[in-house]
Amino acid sequence: MTAKVLMYRTQHCPYCHRAEALLKARGVTEIETVRVDLDPARRDEMVERTGRRTVPQIFIGATHVGGFDDLAELDHEGRLTSLLAG
Questions:
Q1: For residues 25 and 74, is the Cβ–Cβ distance under 8 A?
Q2: What is the pLDDT of residues 5-24, one digit of tens each?
Q3: Residue 37, H or E segment
Q4: Which residues make beta-bridge pairs with 59?
Q5: Contact (CB, 8 A) for 74 and 80
């Protein structure tokens, strides 16, 4: 079983698409997405939860991973798979 993945994103964000592709390559079959370009209140929620204004902002379980660069670094270090395993 993989941990729940939540990603705040916008439709035309290339880093969002890259993050989604990396997660799927690591076996994630379901990503809860929040389109902050469609709902300003959800963008405010994202900023409040993360302290960041850029997308994507990714949570794996209760852990705020950060953006795509942070996700890719976790993967490069070999820590992403264990985080996804819960």
A1: no
A2: 999 999 999 999 999 999 99
A3: none
A4: 6, 64
A5: yes
Q: What is the CATH number of the domain that holds 56?
A: 3.40.30.10
Position 58 scores a pLDDT of 98
Q: How far does CA 22 lie from the centroid of its chain?
A: 10
Residue 29 parent element (H or E): none
Helix (H) or strand (E) holding 53: none
* Full pLDDT tens readout for the chain, 86 residues: 579 999 999 999 999 999 999 999 999 999 999 999 999 999 999 999 999 999 999 999 999 999 999 999 999 999 999 999 98
- For the chain, the distance separating the N- and C-terminal CA atoms, rounded to the nearest angstrom, is 8
Q: Buried (b) or exposed (e) across 48-67, using 16+ Cβ within 10 A?
A: eebeeeebbbbbbeeeebbb
Domain that holds residue 13: 5-85
